[in-house]
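One chain is below:
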Amino acid sequence: MKIQVKQESEGLELVELQGDLDFHCSPELREALSKLVDRQASKILIDLKQVGYVDSSGLATFVELFQKMKRYGGKLVLFNLTQSVRSVFEIAKLDSIFKLAQNREEALTLAQ
């Protein structure tokens, strides 16, 4: 999995993921996201356009991030989900917990 983190502005971090998010690469993602949480990034937008598959360990990584950010009032938005990835969130009933946006513009609005 390729993970690219860009600071868009003060407190706004954009994370672009590429590849499958599974048991093998979720620790690497968890470590990258922990650095953002340690800095208490107020807004994290995660672009999943190039992610074709997410397993339970990938979902757990996002749940953990969500919980940590909630403690300090941060906002997390996932966007550009493929239909197969969106289905995984829906099946796990996580679509009602996470903010899921169609595109970057909607993600920025939801992060306000």
About this structure: The two ends are 29 Å apart (CA to CA). The chain has a mean pLDDT of 97. The CA atoms of residues 20 and 53 lie 5 Å apart.
